[in-house]
Amino acid sequence: MVVVISAVSAALLLVAVVLILVAWRGSRGVFDEYLEPLDEKQFHIKKYLGIGLWFMQHFPVMRWVPAGFNHTVQRYENNIRSKVAELYSIRYQDYFMQIHIATRWLMGLLGFFFLNLFALVMASGGDWQTGAVMTAGSFCAAVGLPLLQDKNLDSKVEDRRTKLRIEFPEFINKLVLLVNAGMTIPRAWEKIADESNVDSILGRELQICMADIRSGKPIEIAYEEFGRRCRIKEIIKFVSVIILNIRKGGNELVLTLQAQSNECWEMRKSAARRLGEQASSKMMLPMAIMMLGIMMIVALPAILSIMSM
Q: Is there a contact between 45 and 106 (Cβ–Cβ < 8 Å)?
């Protein structure tokens, strides 16, 4: 059995190595310019994404999907595309969707390679049971790691929305102050956008909105697209009030904005509370490890004394 598991894991490992080498040679220098805009701090495996892009071009997965599952898979992919568009804007969604698919391919291939490598090591050492489990797990990794990349988008989207919920109330407060001082909504919006921090998510969205307006896009459409990009109900409601005021006017805009400001501060409080709960839950594991260490230190002398009797 040891020989069988070793042979199977070695054959699968050879397949993985051949695929990686072929993809690396086929992608070398081909996708450098395409990958240049990516930030290495955000995309740590930027240097190796050419391998994933090569696989994406030569092995289109959608062609292999059975006709009965085509609609389900397409709906799933549209959901992923929607999250990518929210994270990287609609205008760049096609580019970053390809980057995401390339990351899927790369992670699945690496998982398949490393698990078969560990399986071969374990089987060669005589532990064929562990080797068999790792060999079977390599197929699960080839499918599971790409799905894990999709799941990772959910946490990124939620993190982005949380930051927007925390930053947005300050924006409304500034807007109300400037409108009370006599500025129009578009002028106050422009002033806040120009003074906003480009490193913040809300600041980038405000500056994108102003760039659209300065390039000739109607102001109502630019504001509406701003709300759609943020995808938070309080911000969408705020944008609707602003657009309605621009189109029809009204004397109660400031009162309405103040009421919405109160709602957004409650939104910020709930977001901060959620972050605190997440931080406390993350502290449970280190605390449990520390408690286990303390228990071992306390119990070790007693155990040693019992063993010496």
A: yes
